[in-house]
Write a structure and sequence with these properties.
Elements: H1 3-12, H2 16-19, E1 27-32, H3 44-57, E2 61-68, H4 75-78, E3 82-90, E4 97-107, E5 110-116, H5 118-121, H6 130-151, E6 157-161, H7 167-172, E7 185-190, E8 198-200, H8 201-208, E9 221-222, E10 226-228, H9 229-236, E11 239-242, H10 245-250, H11 261-266, E12 271-273, H12 300-315, E13 324-329, H13 338-348, E14 353-358, H14 363-375, E15 380-383, H15 388-397, E16 400-403, H16 413-419, E17 423-427, H17 430-435, E18 449-451, H18 456-472, H19 474-486, H20 492-505
Parallel strand pairs: 1-2, 1-6, 2-5, 6-7, 7-11, 11-12, 13-14, 13-16, 14-15, 16-17, 17-18
Antiparallel strand pairs: 3-4, 4-5, 8-10, 9-10
The structure holds adenosine-5'-diphosphate and alpha-D-glucopyranose (GLC).
Alpha-D-glucopyranose binds next to helix 3.
């Protein structure tokens, strides 16, 4: 190697100290939640529980993730878990005691501690029905805190996620007062306010073993007879966050507040919106092993066509790289705007347009998508299944991705779509509004197509605008594809904001 070249390389190298410099001081956080990729995932919460801890490590945060050890966790992970200890814990109002085992798994610098108990976690999926889920998550919340004390790992912050971890802040300030873990501050993140863990007071009081005074209107009580686990957690947490700024505002209104809008307005002083990101290593078109061909922003326009053809072939669609392929990857529930999609499909499908859906959920949506596949053979493909590999292929092979949600706390599919050069078509709500800048035909700026009111006609209009651009003004479309691929959808920015928040609570 010539000296000149060597010199250049040496001067361009970042000094080691600089490269590994982490923000000071170090802080520690325990994540408590009910799902986490790759162990168990039903939706975006699983993605966040995986990706955010990874991003926080780069912010000099020591992270432990506490999860239930569900039986459905694949054996390849179970077999690598290491036994960390066990103890017996009182749970119910009558002092019934339960076994708590701790199994540990360390991966990518993150420590995962799984709470083991045959009675609660040995069957079914993470969520079954409230009769079983209420006791399960009472147990889990209390066991998670008891496990921290047992392991003598006392974090600065306990970061709880959704209603399944809702009782953690309540337990911490009641039954755990005076124990080591009570020195921690708590954050409760709302990923989805629709699910709250509501059941009659006697049942929740019995299983949680919590003192009577928490079952008042300021905390758990709701209506005449019910206890709401999320509501209690929101009252007792030191800080509440949700996964986008717009959703933070929306949930304080009656329409989006799921009966907790007044409670959230009351606590608005400690409520912040911090938008989600995605793990850009996991979602990387240049290395994704599931794609027909890998690509990046420099060759997306060519390579996407190849991915489209491969997708069309695999799904039995007419193979034509000039068709406008619209994807939809979603839980099939009311939240996701599927009644609008159902209403527009018959007028949407034409000789230029194909539609691919991937999802599972409510029978009426599963059935209607199957029905449309039958009506429009070769143009519509309904994949009524949960399949990670197929999801990656659709993100890469589709031209546009629909997210017309009724409400959307953040939404990750539009972020993944943009990273894969697939243009999102979204309703302006929650995180969709905060992450997709509408296309402006006069300035040729923006990342996708949007509509505001929840109406099928407006969704159709947005899709037509997208399709027209794709079919008739391809250079503008192509520029948007490249722009989307270059947009920063990583966790970098938001992980820093979480760090600042932890520092604010624990200066
Ligand atoms: P939500 O959490 O409300 O379901 P998000 O958009 O935040 O919505 O996250 C959904 C996540 O689940 C994304 O990673 C998406 O790719 C994935 N996903 C949803 N449905 C399926 C499916 N049927 N198969 C594979 N992945 C899916
Ligand atoms: C929820 C929301 C979704 C969000 C995800 C992760 O499931 O429905 O909008 O992206 O949580 O925060």
């Amino acid at each position: 190697m010539s000296t000149k070249k060597l010199q250049k390389e040496v001067t361009e190298q970042v000094p080691v100290a600089e490269e590994t410099k982490l923000p000071e001081p170090r802080r520690s956080v325990a994540f408590i939640g009910s799902e986490c990729y790759p162990f168990v995932k039903t939706g975006g919460l699983g993605d966040v529980m995986y990706a955010l801890p990874k991003a926080l490590i780069a912010q000099n945060i020591d992270v432990k993730v506490i999860l239930p050890r569900y039986k459905c966790i694949p054996w390849k992970y179970q077999e690598k878990m290491v036994y960390r200890g066990e103890f017996v814990m009182n749970l119910c109002a009558d002092g019934r005691s339960f076994y708590v085992g701790i199994m540990e798994y360390v991966w990518d610098g993150v420590v995962y501690d799984f709470i083991d108990n045959e009675e609660f976690f040995s069957w079914g999926n993470p969520y079954t029905n409230l009769v079983d889920d209420i006791p399960k998550f009472c147990f889990f919340g209390k066991a998670a805190l008891a496990a921290l004390n047992y392991m003598n790992w006392i974090p600065d912050i306990i970061h709880c996620h959704d209603w399944q971890a809702g009782l953690v802040p309540v337990y911490l300030r009641t039954l755990f007062e005076g124990t080591p873990v009570a020195s921690a501050k708590t954050i409760l993140t709302i990923h989805n306010l629709r699910f709250q863990g509501i059941y009659n007071i006697p049942t929740v009081r019995y299983w949680s073993g919590l003192p009577d005074y928490v079952f008042n209107y300021d905390a758990l009580k709701q209506g005449n007879d019910d206890a709401n686990m999320f509501k209690g957690g929101l009252a007792y947490a030191d800080m509440i966050t949700t996964v986008s700024n717009t959703y933070a505002g929306e949930i304080q209104t009656e329409f989006y507040g799921e009966n907790l809008d007044a409670h959230l307005r009351y606590h608005s002083g400690k409520l912040r919106g911090i938008v989600n990101g995605i793990d850009v290593e996991m979602w990387d078109t240049a290395t994704d092993p599931r794609l027909a061909v890998n690509y990046d922003a420099s060759n997306v326009l060519e390579k996407k066509k190849e991915n489209k053809r491969a997708l069309q072939e695999e799904l039995g669609l007419v193979q034509d790289e000039n068709k406008f392929v619209i994807g939809l990857i979603s839980r099939l529930t009311d939240q996701k705007g599927l009644d609008l999609v159902n209403a527009v499909i018959p007028s949407l499908i034409d000789e230029h347009t194909q539609f691919v859906v991937l999802g599972t959920g409510d029978a009426r949506y599963e059935d209607s998508f199957r029905y449309y596949e039958n009506c429009f053979k070769g143009s519509v493909c309904s994949n009524i299944m949960y399949d990670e590999t197929r999801a990656h292929k659709i993100y890469a092979g589709a031209d546009a991705l629909l997210v017309p949600s009724l409400f959307e706390p953040c939404g990750l599919t539009q972020l993944i779509a943009m990273r894969y050069g697939t243009v999102p078509i979204v309703r302006e709500t929650g995180g969709l509004k905060d992450t997709v800048e509408p296309y402006n035909q006069f300035t040729d700026e923006g990342n996708g197509f949007t509509f505001d009111r929840y109406e099928a006609g407006l969704l159709m209009d947005a899709i037509i605008r997208a399709r027209n651009l794709y079919l008739d003004y391809r250079p503008s479309w192509d520029k948007m594809v490249v722009r989307d691929m270059n947009k920063d959808v990583s966790w970098d920015h938001s992980a820093k904001i979480y760090r600042d928040l932890y520092m604010e609570l624990r200066p």
